[in-house]
Amino acid sequence: MRRTKDTEDAVHKLDRRTFLDLLGLSGLGLAIGPGCVRGDAGRGPDEEGEALSNGSRPVSAFSLRTRLTVDYGVPFPLVSAGMAFVSLPPLVAAVSNAGGIGVLGSATEPPAVVEARIRATKALTSGVFGVDFIVATGPTGAFVTQDHIDVCIAEAVPLVIFHWNAPEVAWVDALHAAEAKVWVQVGSVAAARHAVAVGADGIIAQGSQAGGHTRAASRTKSLVRAIRRQVDPALLLAAGGIADGAGVVRALWHGADGVVVGTRLVASTEAYAHPDYKARLVAAGAGATAVQTFFGPEWPDQRQRVLRNRVVRRWAGRESRIPDPSPPPATIGTTVLFPGVLDVPYEMPKFSAIVPTPDTVGDLEEMDMPAGSESVLSIASVKPAAEIVAEMMTEAQDILDVLAAGVLEADVLEADVLGAEPSDGDAHGDAHDDDSDHRASAD
């Protein structure tokens, strides 16, 4: 990313309120001082390789050079979430070509579909990319098997990510033997410890404000800090509530080596999501999401954060009252599974967990649309993934430049500025909106 003289001049002219606006914290009685982004005001901003006060791995002072960018040879510490149905080769390649790491999503894809999508991704990018698998079993069987692992090995995929449960040790060993890296997404310190024990090279700490399926009992900030202190994996990424540059800086401050971005990239040109789903993300405001467990005859009783629509307003928090058989309509629409490879027509049953895509026809007021409670607040339009990555990274670097320039006074950055998270407006007394309540058991 080239920075112009005009950009540099603008950075150094930022006043206190503009800086707080960038961080989403305007109106608070805060002050910021030079050097604090390093967690140690006694060290200068030119001392590369120092560690953050919370134990994060070394990074270049006041830059986006982190352990992730160094170890994986990418310009930016940004990874796209491997979202099922949505993260297909065009989105993956766009993120990788923009300087991040794109990740293919997989749900119930057969190995042959995964193979085809890996090859399609390779045709679109020479950058680093990965494949994400759900370690779980649904009515049709296991979502990931040894055959899926064998495909990744045969195709020399550089990064394989697992979530929901930890992968089998044999899978990790086989991937390592093929020189692939293995990451595991977790929602707790205990799960992070287990992932490290089975050989994970990296941990994705997914906070409770994240969109989609999540097991987190803590928000992203708290989870990242706890894992860094108590587990200290070699590589730690933050997921949940990160959709702008300020979110990136907050994540790095709290000990992450990079960020995983999902909801913001659903609202990208390349994402394989229904246009109305994308439009709803743009229109969403505070309180636009809820956590529920009723979506998913394809994968029943799993905690998931989604956009509020008619069916969510009716049943979120009232799952025990859903009659059996389910109320009408019996079918909410049609879609196509494994598009571009097998093109399997699919009738979507009531409460289907299949996300609406461009192939979907039906009533989106009845459908499952994953979304992060904080991230939707930062989405103003649908735009190409490369622009999203560039804007996030530019904003993050601008914030770091302000800190390096020392143009703002005082010294309470950690406690009052980067220690805060923006309000998502989701706690309205509904148990499924309040992250402190986990009776339904959402990187």
Automatic annotation (TrEMBL):
Region (Disordered) residue spans: 418-443
Domain of life: Bacteria
Biased composition (Basic and acidic residues): 425-443
Alphabetical keyword list: Dioxygenase, Flavoprotein, FMN, Oxidoreductase
Annotated Pfam families: NMO (PF03060)
SUPFAM superfamilies given in the database record: Inosine monophosphate dehydrogenase (IMPDH)
A molecular function (GO) term: dioxygenase activity
UniProt name for this protein: 2-nitropropane dioxygenase
